[in-house]
């Protein structure tokens, strides 16, 4: 047994106890997080300067670009993101390094004692633990990603962030955020603070109007994509410009046209913060180095290749809503223009997602879907139901009991050209794929 095993075991036991403290996985309300933070003597008031990030799609990638640029500039950066893919440690990055099991066990134990058995959701106590950890370690910045929504999210207890960032807003989690884009945008815009700069990605008109209205109400300077700043692709390079001038940078390492937009949002954010001075070289290095797992991530090797067709390409993306499917499909189309291969999707989705709207994005790219379950998840969509949705869109749809079996089935079809296989539909599925393949996020 390794020396780390006892700490991991105690951490797992702690998380099991904490999960049982609230009957719901999600219950948007600030009273419980405010109570536990007060019992912990307000670690949220002792944090490094915060950049707060909300939105529907692209939050994680934008945070990855922010982190990579800042670290290239020599800054120490804490990061809090969700959900994790394989290990909970992925959510907590302390000055550039994932939190250890022992550090997490200690922080969660402090929170458990302070909470005293009162009802609290797991995400709320995770957020409290993050604030405990980050308040105990010196850094120049904290990149704080919203878990769900914004207005009532547990992260929305920081009164004076350096900047509020809003990535593209779309229809997702209507059962919690509202059944219209306007309602969802109102929840996301709830992170806007009085007088604090707001940097927004390009938005649909309804969402943009909500953001503008909220920013005016809070007297918060608003810098919106295509208005105060612009990002584009020229000769394969990222070209960004605003009132301060132009940056001609290397293309992002993260694949897909949408990653140019996410990188532009990160650049606009850092240039909007008066207290930061980032040189062009740091922007160049950060954009080229940034990594974020399960976002059009190519898997070059691993255990799953024992089942896959010889010579195939294997890609992984955690997209799970209509807008996420759109940008992933666009990235697949770009790949097809470079090197054409038959495309096959392996898809697993949660039951509360709009599978029809997600899969519609791929109807012109593939005619073959293999539906799989999401392991250890009672809220996953049944593969047979998912396959029926695909068939209704005139795609061939088969069902497999897991990703390895799906790959074996695709291999049995003996494509003339080795296929390009995309595993997609859920971050929960992506996490299982990374674990099964032996590709652990670091």
TrEMBL record:
Catalytic class of the enzyme: ligase
UniProt keywords, alphabetically: ATP-binding, Folate biosynthesis, Ligase, Magnesium, Metal-binding, Nucleotide-binding
Annotated metabolic or biological route of this protein: Cofactor biosynthesis; tetrahydrofolate biosynthesis; 7,8-dihydrofolate from 2-amino-4-hydroxy-6-hydroxymethyl-7,8-dihydropteridine diphosphate and 4-aminobenzoate: step 2/2; Cofactor biosynthesis; tetrahydrofolylpolyglutamate biosynthesis
GO biological process: folic acid biosynthetic process; tetrahydrofolate biosynthetic process
InterPro entries referenced in this protein's UniProt entry, alphabetically: Folylpolyglutamate_synth (IPR001645), Folylpolyglutamate_synth_CS (IPR018109), Mur-like_cat_sf (IPR036565), Mur_ligase_C (IPR004101), Mur_ligase_C_dom_sf (IPR036615), Mur_ligase_cen (IPR013221)
CC cofactor: Mg(2+)
EC number: 6.3.2.12, 6.3.2.17
Catalytic activity: 10-formyltetrahydrofolyl-(gamma-L-Glu)(n) + L-glutamate + ATP = 10-formyltetrahydrofolyl-(gamma-L-Glu)(n+1) + ADP + phosphate + H(+); (6S)-5,6,7,8-tetrahydrofolyl-(gamma-L-Glu)(n) + L-glutamate + ATP = (6S)-5,6,7,8-tetrahydrofolyl-(gamma-L-Glu)(n+1) + ADP + phosphate + H(+); (6R)-5,10-methylenetetrahydrofolyl-(gamma-L-Glu)(n) + L-glutamate + ATP = (6R)-5,10-methylenetetrahydrofolyl-(gamma-L-Glu)(n+1) + ADP + phosphate + H(+); 7,8-dihydropteroate + L-glutamate + ATP = 7,8-dihydrofolate + ADP + phosphate + H(+)
GO MF annotations in UniProt: ATP binding; dihydrofolate synthase activity; metal ion binding; tetrahydrofolylpolyglutamate synthase activity
GO CC terms, sorted: cytoplasm
Record domain Mur ligase C-terminal: where: 310-426
Domain Mur ligase central: 53-269
Pfam family, one: Mur_ligase_M
Domain of life: Bacteria
Family: Belongs to the folylpolyglutamate synthase family.
Function comment: Functions in two distinct reactions of the de novo folate biosynthetic pathway. Catalyzes the addition of a glutamate residue to dihydropteroate (7,8-dihydropteroate or H2Pte) to form dihydrofolate (7,8-dihydrofolate monoglutamate or H2Pte-Glu). Also catalyzes successive additions of L-glutamate to tetrahydrofolate or 10-formyltetrahydrofolate or 5,10-methylenetetrahydrofolate, leading to folylpolyglutamate derivatives.
Protein name, per record: Dihydrofolate synthase/folylpolyglutamate synthase
Organism: Afipia felis (Cat scratch disease bacillus)
């Amino acid at each position: 047994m390794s020396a780390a095993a006892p700490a991991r075991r105690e951490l797992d036991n702690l998380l099991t106890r904490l999960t049982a403290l609230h009957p719901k996985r999600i219950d948007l309300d600030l009273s419980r997080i405010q109570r536990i933070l007060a019992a912990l003597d307000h670690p949220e008031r002792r944090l490094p300067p915060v950049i707060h990030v909300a939105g529907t799609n692209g939050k994680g990638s934008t945070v990855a670009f922010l982190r990579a640029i800042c670290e290239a500039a020599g800054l120490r950066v804490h990061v809090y993101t969700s959900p994790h893919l394989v290990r909970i440690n992925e959510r907590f990055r302390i000055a550039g390094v994932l939190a250890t099991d022992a550090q997490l066990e200690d922080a969660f134990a402090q929170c458990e004692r302070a909470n005293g058995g009162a009802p609290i959701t797991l995400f709320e106590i995770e957020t409290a633990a993050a604030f405990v950890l980050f308040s105990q370690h010196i850094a120049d910045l904290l990149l704080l990603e919203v878990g769900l929504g914004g207005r009532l999210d547990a992260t929305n207890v920081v009164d004076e962030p350096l900047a509020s960032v809003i990535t593209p807003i779309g229809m997702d989690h209507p059962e919690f955020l509202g059944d219209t884009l306007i309602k969802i945008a109102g929840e996301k815009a709830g992170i806007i603070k009085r007088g604090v700069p707001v940097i927004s990605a390009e938005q649909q008109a309804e969402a943009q109007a909500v953001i503008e209205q909220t920013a005016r109400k809070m007297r918060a300077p608003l810098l919106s994509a295509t208005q105060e700043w612009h990002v584009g692709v020229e000769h394969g390079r990222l070209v960004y410009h605003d009132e301060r001038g132009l940056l001609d940078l290397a293309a992002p390492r993260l694949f897909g046209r949408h990653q140019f937009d996410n990188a532009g949002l990160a650049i606009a954010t850092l240039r909007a913060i008066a207290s930061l001075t980032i040189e062009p070289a740091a922007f160049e290095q950060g954009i080229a180095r940034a990594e974020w797992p399960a976002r059009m991530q190519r898997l070059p090797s691993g255990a799953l290749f024992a089942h896959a067709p010889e010579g195939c390409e294997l890609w992984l993306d955690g997209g799970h809503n209509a807008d996420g499917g759109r940008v992933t499909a666009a990235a697949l189309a770009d790949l097809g223009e470079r090197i054409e291969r038959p495309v096959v999707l392996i898809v697993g989705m949660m039951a509360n997602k709009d599978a029809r709207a997600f899969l519609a994005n791929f109807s012109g790219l593939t005619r073959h879907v293999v539906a799989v379950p999401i392991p250890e998840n009672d809220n996953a969509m049944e593969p047979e139901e998912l396959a029926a949705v695909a068939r209704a869109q005139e795609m061939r749809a088969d069902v497999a009991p897991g990703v390895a079996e799906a790959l074996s089935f695709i291999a049995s079809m003996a494509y003339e050209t080795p296929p390009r296989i995309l595993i997609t539909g859920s971050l929960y599925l992506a996490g299982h794929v990374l674990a099964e393949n032996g590709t652990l996020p670091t």
